[in-house]
Amino acid sequence: MSRKKGTAIYYPTKDKDIVSYYNKIVPILVLLATKYGIDAATITLLQTHSTNVSSTYAQALADADKAHESFEIKDVEFEQAKVDLLRVLNMIQRAANFIESDAEAMGIRVVSEPIDLRTVKPVISGLTSFPEQIIVDWVKGGLSGVKVYGSYDGKNFTVIGQDSRSPFEDTRKNQTDQPEVRYYKLRYMKDDKLVGVESTIYQILAEIY
Fold first, then answer.
1. What is the CATH number that goes with domain 124-206?
2. pTM, whole model, 2 decimals?
3. Best CA proximity match to 42, nearest among 100, 89, 5
4. Which end of the chain is more exposed for a tag (fewer CB within 10 A), N or C?
5. Sign of CA dihedral 62, 63, 68, 71
6. 119-158 per-position pLDDT tens digit
C-alpha cells in the first residue's frame, strides 16, 4: 500500500471519545513500536496516559455534582496526553516505512460528520473562580459562538452575554458582600441564531466583591 504524507491526524474533542481513542490506539502502538522505533519509555508514557485518561474521566464524572476540582485535574492530564501522543503520531507519519493502513488501524483517519443543528449541545470544559471574575471555558465545536446564561438559584436563568471565543469572562460583582453560588449554562449560536439544545448546568462559588 502506498504511503501518504502530510495527511491530517484525527484527534477527538469529546471527553468520552478521547477515552475510547486511547483504549484503541495505545495497544496498537505497542505492536507497532519496533516498526517505527518507539522506545520503551515512550510506550510506558503513553500507557500511563491511557490509564490516567480513563481514570480521571471516570473520577470527574463521579465527582461532577460535588466538586469541579477533578475536572481541572482531568483537563491538565488530557492536554499533556494530547501533546505526547500527537508527537508520536506525527513522528510515525513522517517515517519512511509509514503505510496508511497503520493509520487506519489506529483510528487516526475519520470523515467529519456534519453538525446536527437541532441537537448539538455545548460543553462547558472548565469553571475557574478568581477574585475579579469567573472564567467559563467552553468547546467551540465548529460553530459561531455561544449565548451565556446565568442564575443564582439554578432554576431562573437570564442572558448574561455571548461569546465567539472561549473563555467567557463573567465580571459581575456579587449581589452582597458574601460569597454566592452561581450557575451557568450555554447554547450554541450559528450566524447569530440560536441552535441545538442547552448545555448541562454547572455551578461555582463566586467571591467577586
1. 2.60.40.10
2. 0.50
3. 89
4. N
5. negative
6. 999 999 889 999 899 999 998 888 999 999 999 999 999 9
